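Look over this record as teaching material.
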Amino acid sequence: MSEIEIKLTQLSHGGGCGCKIAPALLQQILGDVKDKLPYPDLLVGSETSDDAAVYRLNDSQAIIATTDFFMPIVDDPFDFGRIAATNALSDVYAMGGTPIMALAIVGMPINKLPVEAIRAILQGGESVCRAAGIPLAGGHSIDSPEPIYGLVAIGVVHPDNLKKNSNARAGDVLVLGKGLGVGIMAAALKKGALSDEGYAQLIANTTKLNAVGPALSGIAAVHALTDVTGFGLLGHLLEMCRGAGLTGEVEFDRVPILSAALPLAKLGYGPGAIERNMESYGCDVHLADGMASWQQRLLADAQTSGGLLVSVAPEAVDEVLACFKQAGFEQAAVIGTMKAGAAGVVVK
């Protein structure tokens, strides 16, 4: 952690992707805005709640555009900047694309935070952009009551390699790239209950770029791709299921969980977003009889800079897992399947 002793999480009412508006309320707000827009070169808009917008320039190039920002999930300014930038770039990777440029989104309470802390946040974001091999080419800043940081991320993808969240097929296998539990660990951190080892695990997980996305997009048998963030595993899988008109079946015992998060989940730690997420899923998520509350909460936990969720044909599962392992995603695992049936999620 940096030497700037500022409790960033005490300056905001929420943190990370746990700040997201709940899925059900977001649907009410958007309303008809989610209808298909009449632009033939707009390959991805808002109609399927995908990770980014995609616009085709020509037969071999499409532009990916996305924005993501939030309030602090950790107290260390540099780490906050790193996490926010990693999370924003993830949406480009989740479309199967490669980032080419970013712009910073900065809102800071300048009467509460010293210049050194604000500078450290921006430096954290810049360090992630350097690691991704892209310029942080500008941005916009305002004086705001709570600290906010994120990026506008721009990327490119070949239209043939674009991976939407809505193209899963019956019989596909589901693979998750990172372990769950980020929101639970962040909630424990805010209450002083996260160990140093747990903090290190939290930072390692949330600052690991999902740069495996372009490799996955080159696999024809990968049919759908998304990343797991504020709506939890259940919420983002549900979006995938609704887009494809299929049932996603998850085996809880196969879902990777961050080791430091497991005991905290059993003790009841977690962000308020968990309850908001669970209420939003409604009758489209069916949990196994006898599932413990901590298990349900892990599946609905708001992930910040979470893992990629892949829907892939069975014959290419080993290739997908090999891509993850080669890129250093040691917890990547098969967690379930996509099946014909009503759009929804079933957990065994």
The chain has eleven helices and 13 strands. Residues 19 and 70 are 7 Å apart (CA to CA). The longest helix spans residues 77-94. The mean pLDDT is 92.
